[in-house]
Write the structure tokens for this entry.
Amino acid sequence: MFSSSGTRYSVFQGYVHIGTAIDVSAKVLSNLLCASSCSETENCISAHYNKATLTCSLFDSLAFHPRDVENDITVVNSIAITENSRAKFFGT
């Protein structure tokens, strides 16, 4: 997936962040808009979007755990994640 600024993001369905968000926005209508917000925020390398609450939380770290497959979407700047860390964090 690409944000509006052209930044490439990997999408992981059913994961949430462990840690404190650097910014949180309400009434965000899609995970693409959430990723775009991340790409425009200094130090943001990943974001969590919740479809049920329309909330976008931005993070400057990579730490996750499984959650609701229906509603939780994590997007990670592709520069910030390698194949090894992808397997470690998401088992893929």
User: Anything to note?
Assistant: The two ends are 17 Å apart (CA to CA). The longest helix spans residues 31-39.
